[in-house]
Every structure is written in C-alpha cells, then in structure tokens.
Amino acid sequence: MRDSVLIITASTGIGAATARLAARQGAKLFVISRTEANCVELTDELTETGETCAFAVADVAEETQVNAAVAECVKTYGRIDALYNVAGISGSKFGDGPIHTCTPQGWDAVMGVNLRGMYLVSRAVINQMLTQTPQSNGLRGSVLNMASVLGQSPYPEHFTTHAYAASKAAILGLTKSMAGYYAPHHIRINAIAPGLTATPMAGRATQDATLNAAMQRKQPLRGGVLEPGDVAEASWFLLSNASRAITGDTLIVDGGWSVTG
Fold first, then answer.
1. Per-residue pLDDT of the chain (261 residues; tens, 9 = 90+)
2. Which helix (H) or strand (E) segment is 235 a member of?
3. Strand extents, DSSP E, 43-153
4. How many other C-beta atoms lie within 10 A of the C-beta of residue 208?
5. Reduced to 3 states, what is the DSSP secondary structure of residue 157?
6. One of 77, 84, 155, 164 is an active-site residue; which one?
7. 181 catalytically annotated
8. Helix (H) or strand (E) segment spanning residue 240
9. Is 219 helix (H, G, I), strand (E, B) or coil?
C-alpha cells in the first residue's frame, strides 16, 4: 500500500505504533487527535525520517470538527484509502462502573467518544470513499474499528466498567452491519479486539501490581500486558492490501486472554 492515504484517530499508543509501521511501508499518514502536542510530536518524528504525515486537531465526538479534519485530509492528499478508528476512552474517571453504580454522565461520556466518535469519523470518511475511483486492487477503501476483548470476554475480578464493555460490544455489531452494506461498494470494514495493552489510556491499570500478576496468567503468550506493537502489526494487516479479501471480521489480539478461562 505504498502511497496509500491512511487516517488514524489517535496520536499515542496503538495508533502511534500503527502510524509508524504504516509509514515505514510507504503509506501517507493523516493523524486526527484532540491533543495538539501529541499530534505535533508524532508528525515531527515521522517527517524527520522522511515519512509523510500531516494532522488535524479535532474532538471525534464533535461533528463540525470531524468533518473539517476529514476535509483537510482530502485537501492534503486528494483521497482516503484507509481509516483506523482508534479514538476511545475508559470512562472510570467520568463515572463508569458496574451498572448499579454507573452514572448517566459516565455512560454518556463513554458512548459519546467510543461510539458517536466512531460513527462521525466513519460517516465522513465513507462518504469520501464512495466517490473515489477504486484502487488497483479493485477496492475503494478499508476501515478498521477498535474494539476490545472486553466486548465479548469479561473479566469481572479486575474490569468493571460496563459502559466501556457495552460500547466495545456495540462496535462488533456495527462493524458487521457496515461490512455487509459496503461490501458491494468495494469498501472493507473490520474490527480488532486487543487485550490489555500498555497505552496511556491503560496507564493506571498497567501500574497495578496485582493486575500485572493476573495478566501474566491471563495473557501468557506475551507474559503479561501487551505492547502497542503487538496490536499494530495485526492492525496494519487488516488495513493493508494483505487482507484485501477480508471484511466483517474481528481479529482478537489478546495474548490468550479469551481462551485461558
């Protein structure tokens, strides 16, 4: 996918790791994030080594900002070949928790970013893809949605944010529905469901000694918490031409979480 245009809605963690990998493969990157400093840092890192990267600062839950950011990508590169919907939050600090304690504010905050944000970015990008001449592989584009192992494999001893789990389970259904509709339009839609990964969002969890010990048993393939690169490699596969015949699928990258009991 040399010279293909990839939007990533994150500037740290798995999104940044995927951006670095995609750039090394010759993709042109466009980063959308609400934190300008992180956007600048990642863009400078990639451009200093000769890669192609631009960015727009936007809150994915805000329609006007999303539309402007996607339009800026098209203005910069002329088209969009792939979208990685990474942006998301863990809502515990907003009031997410077990359903009997989860606050309406916590529920709305999580759904507002994890689902509304994905909807808004996907809508803007797919509208652009539908207008594009197919690539040499016959496809107009590829979309990858960030789910989570918690969307289908709960771990109640340590993870009790039910709004977060519900949002990630909803992403699996959204991905299937989108994939079925857009396959005749030659647009692929897939999801990826990581286990616990060492990202800024998971910072507090990964610093918990008890949880780290549990992860050594729960995610034995990697001896505990995953690294962003573990997920990035699988993500790039689903975004790239290597998976050109795959749509409507969810790739679980969890180090064994979902099969270890």
1. 678 999 999 999 999 999 999 999 999 999 999 999 999 999 999 999 999 999 999 999 999 999 999 999 999 999 999 999 999 998 899 999 999 999 999 999 999 999 999 999 999 999 999 999 998 889 999 999 999 999 999 999 999 999 999 999 999 999 999 999 999 999 999 999 999 998 887 666 667 788 889 999 999 999 999 999 999 999 999 999 999 999 999 999 999 999 997
2. helix 228-239
3. 52-57, 82-85, 141-146
4. 12
5. coil
6. 164
7. no
8. none
9. coil
With residue 191 as reference, give the H or E element that holds it: strand 187-194
C-alpha separations of 107 from 19, 58, 60 in Å: 30, 22, 17
Query: 146: which 2 tokens?
Result: 């960030």
Total-model pTM? 0.95
Amino acid at 109: A
**What backbone torsions phi and psi does residue 260 show, to the nearest 5 degrees?**
-95, 0
Taking the C-alpha atoms of residue 241 and residue 261, their distance in angstroms, rounded to an integer, is 34
DSSP 8-state class, residue 112:
I
List beta partners, residue 57.
Answer: 33
Contacts of 170 (CB under 8 A, 6+ apart): 115, 151
For residue 215, give both structure tokens.
């992860």
